[in-house]
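stage 2 :: seqdesign
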């Protein structure tokens, strides 16, 4: 993409908006993980910059995330923050391995209902993540402080929704943050600010090898956490990449993104950060503002660093209500409202997947939700295809009985396939036509062999026509019964472990 003045302006302003939105999230996730707020800020800065430069999806924003924070709580509480840094380093190495093996492309196999559940679940998670800001010392704020905060949230949301009707020269979210900040400071309105969460003042992150024993005992402690963190991070990042692909009608590079995420986490662990992954909320802010260049992520990351080094006093005076308003709008725009309307129209299995992934994302974590959604979709697919194996029979003039199969023969339909035949009632000559059927796996091969054996024991002759060559090669008991015709036999490849 050419970097004209207009494109540069859009990406710089959007990057600054994202930088503001990253601050409370980074602090909140650090608190969840029981680490210093600067640990979250450093992670957000390094993740954002490195993935912006190296990533496979320009415009996507990465940083410290709640998905990673909730995984590491037990590790930090039981073993300390140094073990967290070691786990983040190992997490990065695992993600680099994943990218080097070019496994990122498999994320495109995630069914659309799973994507809808993922988006809806994260939209609700983004909304719920703002609720702790309405609490102080574990109790909900009430009275005048609550009404002031709600009023400022409403003001920020109104600006975000209404300003684009007047001008799109600057991101409406940035204007909302600055306008609410100026309004509260000019009129001396007392409300909760970023500084009430924690101070973000600090220096440059320093290189630091995790202070842990480098032995097998340490590996046993950190590896389970690192593996879960790596998978959660990659799943959230690659699904966010897919979502932005759909929004922008472009195509990202999932394997490159895996390598970028791994590099970023490796560096983050070595410089005292808590690790992270792509952030759907901040990515929506960025892409929604039209910022799809790497410059936006770079500005966001460097903006965070400048807040830490030079602008902490100003940033800490920004009302939390302004940032909450931005995230409420992001949540509303992220949620696929159309999926609610179509729940009664799509197949019940797809509706179940959407609801299951949404609920599990909210109450557990994204990795579990996506795996569950894929498993449900796969089981539904298998069941549907298992029930579609059917046969038509006819008697030829020679007296031979012909079974003409239609459907897919694989592990789920193998039993049904065998039940289609009654060898003791069939004539001596039996022909099974596979021209309209597809043999998919080893279970199908075993089913054909077992059928051949049943006919052999009765002294009857079974003829197998129109099998693919690789399928015929794998048949043991029925191998001599295959009738080959190079012009008519199919040439698909069989997925079977005996092919090596």
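stage 2 :: out
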């Amino acid at each position: 993409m050419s970097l004209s003045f207009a494109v540069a302006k859009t990406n710089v302003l959007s990057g600054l908006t994202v930088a503001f939105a990253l601050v409370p999230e980074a602090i909140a996730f650090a608190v969840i993980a029981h680490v210093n707020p600067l640990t979250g800020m450093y992670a957000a800065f390094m993740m954002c910059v490195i993935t912006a430069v190296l990533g496979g999806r320009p415009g996507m924003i990465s940083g410290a995330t709640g998905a990673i924070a909730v995984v590491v709580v037990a590790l930090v509480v039981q073993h300390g923050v140094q073990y967290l840094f070691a786990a983040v380093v190992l997490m990065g190495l695992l993600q680099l391995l994943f990218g080097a093996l070019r496994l990122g492309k498999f994320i495109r196999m995630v069914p659309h209902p799973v994507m809808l559940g993922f988006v809806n679940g994260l939209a609700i998670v983004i909304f719920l993540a703002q609720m702790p800001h309405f609490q102080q010392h574990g109790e909900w704020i009430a009275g005048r402080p609550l009404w002031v905060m709600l009023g400022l949230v409403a003001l920020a949301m109104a600006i975000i929704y209404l300003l684009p009707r007047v001008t799109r020269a600057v991101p409406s979210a940035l204007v909302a943050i600055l306008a609410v900040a100026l309004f509260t400071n000019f009129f001396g309105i007392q409300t909760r600010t970023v500084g009430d969460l924690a101070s973000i003042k600090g220096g440059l992150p320093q290189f630091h090898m995790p202070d842990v024993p480098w032995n097998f005992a340490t590996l046993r402690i950190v590896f389970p956490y690192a593996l879960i963190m790596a998978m959660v991070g990659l799943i959230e990042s690659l699904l966010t990449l897919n979502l932005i692909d759909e929004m922008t009608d472009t195509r990202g590079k999932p394997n490159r993104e895996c390598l970028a995420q791994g590099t970023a986490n490796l560096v983050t662990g070595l410089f005292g950060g808590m690790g992270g992954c792509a952030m759907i909320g901040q990515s929506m802010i960025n892409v929604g503002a039209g910022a799809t260049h790497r410059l936006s992520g770079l500005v966001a990351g460097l903006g965070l660093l400048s807040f830490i080094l030079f602008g902490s006093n100003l940033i800490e005076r920004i009302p939390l209500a302004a940032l909450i308003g931005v995230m409420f709008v992001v949540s509303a725009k992220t949620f696929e409202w159309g999926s609610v309307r179509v729940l009664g129209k799509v197949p019940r299995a797809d509706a179940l997947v959407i609801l299951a992934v949404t609920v599990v994302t909210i109450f557990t974590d994204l990795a579990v939700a996506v795996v569950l959604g894929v498993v449900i979709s796969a089981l539904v697919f298998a069941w549907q295809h298992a029930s579609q194996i059917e046969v038509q029979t006819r008697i030829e003039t020679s007296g031979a009985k012909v079974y003409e199969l239609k459907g897919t023969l694989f592990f789920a339909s193998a039993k049904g396939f065998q039940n289609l035949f009654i060898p003791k009632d069939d004539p001596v000559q039996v022909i099974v036509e596979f021209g309209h059927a597809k043999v998919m796996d080893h279970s199908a091969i075993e089913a054909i062999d077992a059928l051949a054996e049943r006919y052999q024991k009765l002294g009857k002759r079974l003829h197998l026509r129109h099998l693919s060559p690789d399928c015929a090669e794998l048949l043991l008991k029925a191998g001599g019964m295959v009738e080959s015709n190079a012009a008519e036999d199919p040439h698909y490849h069989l997925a079977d472990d005996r092919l090596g």
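stage 3 :: structure notes
- The domain at 387-499 is CATH 3.30.750.24 (Transcription Regulator spoIIAA).
- The chain has a mean pLDDT of 89.
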